[in-house]
Design goal:
Layout (H helix, E strand, L loop, with lengths): L1 H12 L3 H10 L3 H11 L8 H29 E7 L3 H11 L10 E4 L10 H15 L10 H12 L5 E4 L2 E7 L2 E9 L11 E8 L4 H16 L5 E7 L8 E8 L11 H15 L1 H9 L6 E6 L6 H12 L3 E3 L9 H9 L6 E4 L15 H13 L27 H9 L8 E6 L7 H4 L6 E4 L5 H12 L17 H4 L5 H46 L7 H9 L5 H6 L1 H19 L1
Parallel strand pairs: 7-10, 9-12, 9-13, 10-11, 11-12
Antiparallel strand pairs: 1-6, 2-3, 4-5, 5-6, 7-8
Helix pairs in contact: 5-8, 6-7, 16-18, 16-19
Length: 591
């Protein structure tokens, strides 16, 4: 009786043959599954098939639901900052991130030793060198003081292993900042052809609609990035890093500022150059320019023989005023008008742009004389009795040299960038040249070049100052005075051991007095050496001829005897004769 009731029920819930065929086509093996459940488990799966279909539909749509909910929450309940690779804040953040403690525990990171925007080109090398020099400068106890061979072996061993840098890998990373969870997503742009080198974007997110925690993080990253340079002068170079990419300013290095006193130039000229820059950078000067409709720009031309200190003066001024230095080579054939305009538009408001040896760039050369002026010259020569006719001007003289044969920037583009309607304001332009007569007059007119400084050969005063600066003992040249070292016995239990504490204080006072005595003796030795060097400088200046040699030539000779001023004095006459003969032979070869 029960069997008779069950069979109709199964038949009532079973699908027809056509329905079963459709299910067999959609779900391969459906007949076997149905036979297994109905025969062995006495379960008719056709009664639950609609629930299975609903579950499958829900599973298929679940990922879309999650994506929609996630996008909704991120849009209205999450704050996100986007950081792009072509912006300097990218370097700030990655530098800060690479030095956070949680980077040591992450299991997904990018490891490398290649220098890039987050670390200056010589950052790790400078740190290692300073550590090694500190070890060599540590005051020892006689024979225990490290020798050069020991220091050098240790430094060379350290150089074999370059410092590893770790940054977050591509994907999502979670970390804590000031007690709040943050998310970093490093994403590669799909249209980029090379990973990391071109298009890459960072996304920093936090819960809540208040993004102040992210702004605080970015401000801290910028501060840590800038403070690592200290008072060093940061140098950028305009260059094309990758094929197909435009020119951009790339950080090269950060160097210690050069004292203005080490630049061999007349004191009034040096001070006038610096004072003119200070006057230009003063806030009231900008208002004065703006009120009168004058473009707020300043240009300088430093000219003179090579090795006279033109670039050194520019670098020293940048260090004195704390300005960034931007170097650009106009002779690059890959540099065109668009790239030049883009580079100048990206300059910060207060900086120094240095164009070195502009006379070597054909674009800045004088456009020459016209055909009429050449004919006039021929007539003048004929009137003086010359029987030989001058040849006709070459066709090249008709051509405007402002546009070179190949690719590159034109003179018109350079002038527009320097002093055009759309030219940037607030920057300081410094051009150096060995031959100012080769430069086009349009480049030198007031408004583009506002001050010209001529560098010449060294005078007697310059020679004495150069000799003194080379051999005078500086504070950093001397080994440091040993700090007083305390024994731990006196600090172990001062309350219960009064006599030991008394001995400790007495020993501390003796060490401090000894240190002061060493400092006084050291200062006396420095004063005596300074007086001796002054006498030698006068003698050296009497041997070296006035206004004949450059500062670089004299400095190169003195550096060969940097620890022996007596030897430098004894060999000066021979060096002067040799250098004169070398110059005469060079002049004879040129003629």
């Amino acid at each position: 009786m029960a069997d008779n009731m069950t069979i109709p029920s199964l038949r009532r819930n079973s699908f027809s043959q056509s329905d079963t065929a459709i299910l067999e086509a959609l779900v391969p093996g459906y007949s076997l599954i149905y036979g297994f459940f109905s025969s062995y488990l006495q379960i008719d799966i056709t009664g639950y098939l609609q629930y299975v279909v609903l579950l499958a539909v829900f599973g298929a749509s679940l990922k879309y639901i999650i994506r929609y909910v996630t996008n909704f929450l991120e849009r209205y309940f999450v704050s996100t900052a986007e950081i792009r690779l072509d912006d300097e804040i990218f370097n700030y953040f990655m530098y800060w991130m690479s030095r956070q403690p949680h980077m040591k525990s992450t299991n997904r990171f990018v490891a490398g030793v290649k220098t890039n925007g987050y670390w200056s080109e010589n950052e790790s090398d400078d740190e290692d060198d300073e550590k090694g020099m500190d070890e060599l400068d540590e005051p020892g106890c006689g024979e225990d003081e490290p020798t050069f061979d020991e220091y050098w072996a240790k430094l060379i061993g350290r150089d074999k292993y370059r410092t590893l840098r770790y940054t977050p890998a591509e994907g999502r990373h979670f970390f804590w900042y000031r007690g709040r969870p943050l998310r970093l997503e490093r994403r590669e742009q799909l249209q980029s052809t090379r990973y990391i080198l071109n298009n890459e974007t960072l996304y920093v997110s936090c819960l809540g609609r208040d993004p102040s925690i992210i702004k605080d993080l970015l401000n801290e990253a910028q501060q840590s990035y800038v403070e690592r340079d200290g008072n060093r002068t940061v140098i950028y170079r305009g260059q094309k890093l990758y094929l197909g990419r435009p020119f951009q300013w790339t950080r090269c290095m950060a160097r210690a500022p050069r004292p203005l006193s080490t630049v061999v130039l007349d004191h009034e000229q040096k001070q006038g150059f610096v004072n003119d820059i200070k006057e230009y950078l003063h806030p009231r000067t900008r208002r004065w320019y703006s009120n009168r409709g004058i473009p707020y720009r300043r240009g300088y031309l430093l000219h003179g023989p090579p090795g006279t200190g033109k670039t050194s003066l520019c670098f020293a001024a940048a260090g004195l005023l704390g300005l960034k230095l931007f170097l650009l080579n106009l002779d690059s054939k890959a540099l065109d008008e668009d790239n030049l305009s883009s580079l100048f538009s990206e300059l910060p408001r207060r900086c120094i742009v240095l164009l070195e040896d502009v006379d070597t760039a054909g674009v800045t050369h004088s456009r020459g004389k016209t055909i009429e002026s050449s004919k006039d010259k021929d007539k003048t020569d004929d009137s003086r009795g010359n029987t030989t006719e001058e040849p006709e001007p070459e066709p090249e003289e008709k051509k405007d040299d402002s546009k070179p044969d190949g690719d590159g920037v034109t003179l018109s583009a350079l002038l527009n960038v320097i002093d055009g309607v759309a030219a940037s304001e607030g920057r300081i332009l410094v051009m150096t040249t060995n031959h100012p007569e080769k430069l086009d007059a349009a480049l030198l007119r007031p408004g583009r070049v506002d001050m010209t400084i001529a560098f010449g050969y060294t005078t007697t005063t310059d020679i004495k100052e150069l000799f003194t600066s080379i051999y005078t003992t500086m504070e950093g040249d001397l080994p440091r005075i040993a700090a007083s070292k305390h024994t731990s016995n006196g600090d172990a239990n001062p309350a219960t051991n009064g006599s030991a504490n008394h001995v400790h204080e007495k020993r501390k006072a003796e060490l401090e007095e000894k240190k002061r005595q060493e400092e006084r003796e050291q200062q006396m030795r420095m004063d005596e050496r300074h007086a001796w060097i002054s006498e030698l400088a006068t003698e050296f200046a009497s041997i070296v001829p006035n206004s004949e040699f450059t500062a670089a030539e004299i400095q190169g000779y003195l550096l060969n005897h940097k620890n022996a001023p007596d030897d430098a004095i004894r060999g000066t006459e021979l060096w002067v004769r040799g250098l004169r003969e070398k110059k005469r032979s060079q002049e004879k070869h040129l003629t």
